[in-house]
Amino acid sequence: MSLLRSIIPSTSSGDDTNLMYQNYLALRESIFKFDIPSEVNIYEYIREFTQRHGHLPNLKSIHDHFEQGQNFDEADRIQQISTKSVSYRGDFISLIEKTVEEARVMSLASALSDAKTIARSGLEVKDGRIKKLLKGARDASNHLLTQISKINTPTFGSRIGGDAMVDEEDFWEEFEKAKHRELDVRPITGHSVIDNALGGFKKKELYILAAYTGHLKSTTSLNWAYNQAIYGGTSTLYFSLEMHYPQCRRMIYVYHSMHPKFRAKRIALGLQAGQTDACIDPKKIREGTLSEDEVEFLKEVTKDLHDGVKEGKYGSLRFEVADPNVMDTTVEDIRTRAEAIAQSEPFKMLVVDHALLVSSRRWVASTTERLNEVIRDLKKMSLGFNRGEGIPVLCLFQISREGFKAAEKNGGKYNLTHLSYANEAERSADVVICSWFGDDQREKSQVLYQCLKSRDQAPFENFEAQINWPAGRTLDMPLQFQSSARPKQAPKGDALDKILDGELQ
User: Fold this and answer.
1) pTM metric for this prediction
2) Which tops the pLDDT comparison, 421 or 27?
3) Are residues 351 and 217 in the same domain?
4) Hey, which of 80, 130, 243, 336 has its CA 20 to 30 A from 353?
5) How many C-beta atoms surround the C-beta of residue 454 within 10 A?
6) In a domain, 168, yes or no
7) Strand pairing of 431-436 and 393-398?
8) Do 84 and 103 belong together in one domain?
9) Could you tell me if residue 505 is inside a domain?
10) How many structural domains is the chain composed of?
11) What is the pLDDT of residues 446-486, one digit of tens each?
């Protein structure tokens, strides 16, 4: 009752009215929800009235409204509310926090009780419209972690939704931030065509990178993750269910050996005649056959990465690989691990390599049903990650053999129906990008990229990027060495040429 009293003026005029309106805005921006039916109805009336008239209704007008409608529970409740004392701003905020904290304690107790039941005997729960049986220690721990994530939602500032009819103030604040590139630091791919078209990867969106087997899905995503860290200054968490960690780490070191800042060193070592795209031979690293000079160069490369991350010059790139002792990895498993990592090591992008290797939460009869569930769960994760803050999720996806054969006859052009098994990918993904690597591309050492879907903007035009084969490095990228962690607009034309020529650092 005290919360409601503090947003209802005694009269329609006076200094109290503005103060209470500020209280009302704070309550609206919080996660607090009324649970007593009469108070729910009173608050809904206040909200609707304020939306229509631009100011709060007073005690008498609310009482008269419900009495005339013969809603006597609400009318009596208003009478009781009128006897309570009013809290202003600081005290009101504290009251919200205290009330929410009491609800958190009750929710935690309930979650612990449910987890105990799940572990011992099993419990049927609803996930949207789907009922599922949770049973065993693993289901219990996942359920508990999910509930704890909800319980830990900040009291203010992390709304997933809102009333679009009255949120114009928040909208224009976001617009101004976007205008000045302050909304968030968006990860980049390093391909100017993609970055200029999409404006970087955005929070709460699901991106699918699809290709046929051997058509450079993992290579592309590794390149993008590296570019984000070095040229965008943003950190990425990369879940690899296929490649092992030493392989991933080795390729990142090889990529960095190609950085323009090391061009003089590469020339001195005679690596590929001092070409801009030269690199340390990954085969020599794998086999331990580097020369002493090459070892010293590699030490310089790894030290630069280490120091750059520690100094905030580069973003980080953390790999999580499949546990060989746990064959079934679900989106819930990925999210649980990612949420835990985010608490101590924040990141701006999450990559899942790849969808076919992710298991569903429950047994299903077909691959199509399993993949559809995985895609839906990945979309949910992009929206709700980190207590509703959201995150861009990049998921690697398999093109079907039929799709490959059809594209082969069409110059490497795919369509959405070629995504293996999963029609959900067409619906849930915000952006779908495909890579093609046919005979023509192999001969020219190129890979073709195309955009099949882009929800909020026009798809980018098809383009081909060069590949450095020893490194597995795609070379159509903004090679701009950033001195700060804030990304800048990708260079074009002459500016990019100068960077490639080593004239700009």
Assistant:
1) 0.63
2) 27
3) yes
4) 130
5) 17
6) no
7) unpaired
8) no
9) no
10) 3
11) 888 999 888 878 888 888 888 887 778 887 644 333 323 33
Q: Give the position of tokens 């849930």.
A: 428
Q: Are 295 and 148 members of one domain?
A: no
| Percent of the chain at pLDDT exceeding 70 | 83
pLDDT tens track for 162-178 = 556 656 666 666 666 55
Residue 166 falls within a domain, yes or no?
no
- What domain range includes position 456? 186-500
- Strands of the 431-436 sheet, one edge to the other: 317-321, 236-240, 349-353, 393-398, 206-211, 431-436, 446-454, 463-468, 473-474
> 468 by DSSP, 3-state: which?
strand
The token pair that represents 365 in the structure block = 């009869």
Tens of pLDDT, residues 49-96: 887 887 888 888 899 999 888 888 888 888 888 888 888 767 887 888
pLDDT at 299: 92
Q: What angle do CA 372, 377, 382 make, to 5 degrees?
A: 125
Query: 472 and 350, same structural domain?
Result: yes
- Is 306 within the bounds of a domain? yes
73 and 120 inside one domain: no
Written as six digits, the tokens of 191 are 């391909």
The long-range contacts involving 86-89, CB below 8 angstroms and separated by at least 24 positions, are 86/5, 86/6, 86/16, 86/20, 87/2, 87/6, 87/23, 88/6, 88/19, 88/23, 89/19, 89/22, 89/23, 89/26
Structure tokens at 232: 């965008």
Give the whole-angstrom CA distance, residue 466 versus residue 226: 17
pLDDT digit string, tens, across residues 113-141: 999 999 999 998 876 667 788 899 988 88
- Of the residues 73, 88, 103, which one is the last residue of a structural domain? 88
If you search the block for the tokens 């990918």, which residue do you land on?
425
Whether residues 359 and 481 share a domain: the answer is: yes
Looking at the structure, do residues 133 and 227 belong to the same domain, yes or no? Answer: no
Based on the fold, state whether residues 70 and 208 are members of the same structural domain. no
Measure the CA–CA gap between 316 and 229, rounded to whole angstroms.
6
Q: Which residues contact 61 (CB under 8 A, 6 or more apart)?
A: 12
Which has more confidence, 321 or 495?
321
